[in-house]
N-acetyltransferase domain-containing protein
Amino acid sequence: MSPDNGVHIRRARSEDYDAVMAIGCMYGGRDYLPSLYPKAMSDPDFYPLLAEVKGQVVGFYMNHILDGGLSVMKRAARVHPSFRKMGIMHELSHALDRHAATLRPGLQYLYISATDVIASKVENEYTSVGYEETQRKSIICLDFCIKDLSFSDVKDQVSSVTTLGYDDIKLLLTLEDVLDKFFDSRIIFNNFVGYRCLESNIKHFVDENKEVCVTIASSTKTQDKNTPMAMRDIDMVTFSEWYESEVGLVYVLEIYASEGSSDHSLQAHLWRQVYFIKKLKLCDKGVVKVSYGPNVPEEKVRSYLKEVGISKYSNVSFVDAVLFEKKL
């Protein structure tokens, strides 16, 4: 379509990659879109749009269908600095709304996420059209260099951390008492994306650049993790994903802890992830982005990461990730 203001909205294509990336550096060089773009072009669960002005790509926004079609989330919004305050983002957003409308009646929820800095500016706009804040998680970002990472006593600590496969996660999602401990709203909020606790979302947790790990309380440590009894004694769950960016490797770690979870579990999860970063051998440096809820003490996170060589603060202005939900 070609509105009167000269903005043309169309479906993004694989060959638009360079033009979309030329819109500008996002998220302080920690942008996930470059690594996600090929999948967004081929996966039918993505609906990517771009905005053009006189043939120049000046904006991008996409819908991501989640929860087996129950939900849609808007992601990766951006407009070229020279074309802001022209209503381009609103046009892209309205076009995505029209796409979402075609998914009714199965579609039940719409999601948008933002940093706390952005959320404070747009909350009134979101709530005026029916969105409500449903999740808020703390975030810390720390820079690292591979050469500075130290692992003298790590192996004994990380042995208590177990990586889950598809069937393990499927079992976990059937245990209501476990979900009550970690995901009382039944939403898993990872890296600014909200997922309902459904089997259809497991593909978003276990992939070539994603994994899920758990620690089990010491009283059942010798039991098979695949039994409901052992699953019920999980005291910490971590979701991780990683991708390359302008600043190097971005390693995202989401920590979900039960009330009263042990410091040993937190230390083991953090050290295991740092050990894994070094094993990846993807970049010489990067950023660790750790997100966590109220049962995880920030000072412990910083302390345990410092012990293995990660202590430098990244240059970010936000401290929280915020999820907004609209029920249809």
